[in-house]
Design goal:
Layout lengths: L8 H17 L4 E5 L7 H10 L3 E2 L2 E2 L1 E5 L4 H6 L5 H6 L12
Parallel strand pairs: 1-4
Antiparallel strand pairs: 2-3
């Protein structure tokens, strides 16, 4: 429901920011959930990190949840993803289920 033509990245980001501001004004929390994050390229992960910069006076406008396989942890150890790794507040490892 972004109110834009989606012809340029700045236009999309401006529309997304407005949508997030409106949701925050209404007391709603917006969450971006990314599954299979281990398959994402580094540049996409960096773009997701930058989305985390969207904020107002009260805090972040977007909560981001990244879910992936164990290799995602190894990917986060790469030097170029240091800033993303520093922003991760909570990490959870799920063990396989037993009988």
């Amino acid at each position: 429901d972004l109110n834009c033509d989606r012809k340029s990245k700045p236009e999309v980001l401006f529309a997304l920011n407005n949508l997030l501001l409106q949701a925050a004004h209404e007391g709603r929390t917006t969450v971006l959930i990314v599954d299979e994050a281990h398959n994402l390229d580094w540049d996409v992960l960096e773009e997701i990190r930058l989305l985390g910069n969207l904020e107002n006076r009260r805090g972040k406008l977007l909560q981001i949840v990244l879910a992936g396989q164990p290799e995602f942890d190894r990917k986060l150890d790469a030097p170029n993803l240091r800033q993303l790794k520093q922003r991760i507040v909570l990490r959870c490892h799920l063990r396989p289920l037993n009988l």
